[in-house]
Amino acid sequence: MKILIPTAKEMNTDLPSIESAPLKPESQAVLDALAFYSSNQLESFYKVSAEKAAEEFQNIQALTSQTAQHYPALKLFDGLMYRHIKRDKLTEAEQVYLENHVFITSALYGVVPALSPMPPHRLDFLMKLKVSGKTLKSHWKAAYDEAVTQEEVIFSLLSSEFETVFSKEIREKMLTFKFMEDKGGQLKIHSTISKKARGAFLTALIENQVQTVEEARHLSFAGFVYREDLSQPRELVFVKEV
């Protein structure tokens, strides 16, 4: 059983660094493609300010020269979803569950355990990087599929940009989740609700050591409860009354 979560743009490097791991060939190919860009070119590639592009240029150079500081990925990424995940003061059982079941999908590293060492970097599947003539999605598809092909149960907390890296066969095995708010009978969904709820849901999975779809249905967390009437066989819907 694997739980898949995406990377985030926001990062926190105010952490103790950890030892890096050798890059896989697929990752090295992506890094080689990024290393062709000058700081000016990165500005338009990333659609960011000159200052941010210069920072990213330094990150890429540090990775290329193997001098980059690495951090546990789950703690490095610090977007809204990540800030709602229980990342500290885990019990031994929760730590083991996290290590065995929670995986981050990265455009630079592939599908990796959540506590894998990663350096600060910016890359997602909406970026038009060509790797040996292929799009990022095409480049990673085989490795992404291979990472989960043996799994009977795949919980996806991914956005569509990450989900569509996987083949149709794998996507059809995934269980997806929708988080909504009920305001006086009006069901609402927006990205802020979804991101916070994904983090809270993952925390509930970790704390309750969830292994099956049936166990997931019985969870209640941060005011959200399962709504069978709104759910589909491959999509569980959780609603919070506000």
Characteristic terms for this protein:
242 residues; alpha/beta; globular; two-stranded antiparallel ribbon; nine-stranded mixed sheet
SSE blueprint:
Layout (H helix, E strand, L loop, with lengths): L1 E5 L18 H10 L4 H8 L3 H15 L6 E2 H4 L3 H4 L8 H10 E5 L3 E4 L3 E2 L11 E2 L2 E2 H13 L5 E3 L3 H4 L4 H4 L2 E10 L2 E3 L2 H18 L4 H5 L2 E2 L2 E3 L8 E7 L1
Parallel strand pairs: 1-3, 1-8, 8-9, 9-13
Antiparallel strand pairs: 2-5, 3-4, 6-7, 9-10, 11-12, 12-13
InterPro entries: YaaA
Protein name: UPF0246 protein SK642_1375
GO cellular component, one term: cytosol
Please provide the count of β strands: 13
What is the count of DSSP helices, taking H or I runs of 4+ residues? 11
How much of the sequence lies in strands comes to 15-25%
- SSE succession: EHHHEHHHEEEEEHEHHEEHHEEE
Distance between the amino and carboxyl termini: 33 Å
Biggest β-sheet: count, sense, barrel? 9 strands, mixed
**Uncertain spans, ≥5 residues at pLDDT below 50?**
none
Q: What's the gyration radius in Å?
A: 18 Å
**Percentage of residues assigned to helices:** 25-40%
Which of globular, elongated, flat, extended, rod-shaped describes the shape?
globular
Question: How many structural domains?
Answer: 1
- What's the rounded overall pLDDT mean? 96
Structural class by SSE content: alpha/beta
Pfam families: H2O2_YaaD
Organism: Streptococcus mitis
Family: Belongs to the UPF0246 family.
Protein name: UPF0246 protein SK642_1375
